[in-house]
Task: structure prediction
Amino acid sequence: MTDQDRRTGRDETEEERADRMWGELIQEVRVAQTGVQILFGFLLTVVFQQKYAELSDVDRTIYVVTVVLGASATGALIGPVSLHRLVAGRKVKPQAVRLASGLTQIGLFLLLATMTSSLVLILRVATGGSAVTWVVVAAVGWYLVCWYGLPFWSRRRHSTR
Result:
């Protein structure tokens, strides 16, 4: 098979393509759901720890923002499952795939924000604030490269015009 043959895509109907894309999307969402659920569960326990009472007002605000971001990310990343259940059998899979894909992108962005906020809080408490900004910027930069930079580069480099 030549490069050109591989790039022309599959010979599938819109429904077959939607079925394939739905399966791929759900596999991807499972990974993100697990991560966000573990992170969110951990965040929910922090308020019940003894050290929470010692946090400054700024750190408590960061914590509340982090919990709200985590709850929002969880909702967006679980949304595709509910969407699928509620529209299954209604002959709207192509539209559902587009909607679920959008929810997943929003969920990933909110997960990025949750992880960033979590890092800020944890590093502020763990280090007393020294070098937090640089470590968080480096971590977020890494997330952006992995989650967006490489995929966009690959799409641009390997997609046909």
In short: The longest helix spans residues 93-127. The helical segments are 3-7, 14-46, 57-87, 93-127, 132-158.
